[in-house]
Amino acid sequence: MPKQLNDIEVWKRLKGGDRKAFEQVYRSEIQVLIAYGRKYSKDLELVEDCVHDLFIYIWKQRESLSDTDSIRRYLLVAMRHRVLASKNKRKKVELKEPDEHSFQQESSIEERITLKEQNEENAFIVSESLQVLSSRQREAIYLRYMNEMSYEDICEIMKINYQSVRNLISTG
Predict the structure, then answer these.
(1) Rounded distance, CA 42 to CA 34, Å?
(2) Would 103 be classed as within a structural domain?
(3) Each residue of 11-53: pLDDT tens digit?
(4) What mean pLDDT do residues 99-118 have?
(5) Which positions ≥6 away from 12 have C-beta within 8 Å?
(6) Mean pLDDT of 98-102
(7) CATH code (residue 81)
(8) Which CATH number fits the domain that encloses residue 150?
(9) 41 φ, ψ to 5°?
(10) Residue 17 maps to a domain
């Protein structure tokens, strides 16, 4: 069964209150949503909160959700809006109340060593290449190659036209 038809059916079942369909969507998309949210905020806690808030909203409002033929596209658009709104809200709060206890979570030594080993050969080249790209180019390339999204889906997520997406990716 093509993924698009499967997405339509799963979404329809979710909207009808099927907990298994909801769980299926959650399990299949949570890692993608966290990774995508981290592109907008390095604060893992904020991103995870946004993901969970998004799924709570989806479940509570399931009957009034719009139809979609691509669950991932729908969720990525919603996730982008949630993370950006949360960051803006946090900035406003920080302006009012400076954070006296700024705690930065660091990854474990094992994680850092593993990451370094995996990326050692290509890290410098990729890093230098990405530095010259605009944030929009980085986002388009991430969606296209890391999430294997179509140009049409990227258009909807980024709210730009098809040719602009093609240009961002080809010049990146």
Answers:
(1) 10
(2) no
(3) 999 999 999 999 999 999 999 999 999 988 889 999 999 999 9
(4) 59
(5) 67
(6) 47
(7) 1.10.1740.10
(8) 1.10.10.10
(9) -150, 130
(10) yes
Structural domains counted in the chain: 2
* 37 shares its domain with 92: yes
Q: Give the distance, in angstroms, between the CA of residue 164 and the centroid of all CA atoms in the same chain.
A: 20
* pLDDT value of residue 101: 43
**Coil, strand, or helix at residue 32?**
helix
- SS3 label, residue 100: coil
Selection from 37, 62, 36, 65 nearest residue 49 by Cα: 37
Enclosing domain of residue 135: 109-172
Residue 104 lies in a domain: no
Note whether 49 and 89 are within 8 A (CB): no
Answer whether 33's CB lies under 8 Å from 58's CB: no
Please tell me the pTM assigned to this model: 0.60
CB 51 within 8 A of CB 37: yes
Task: Retrieve residue 57's tokens.
Answer: 């909203």
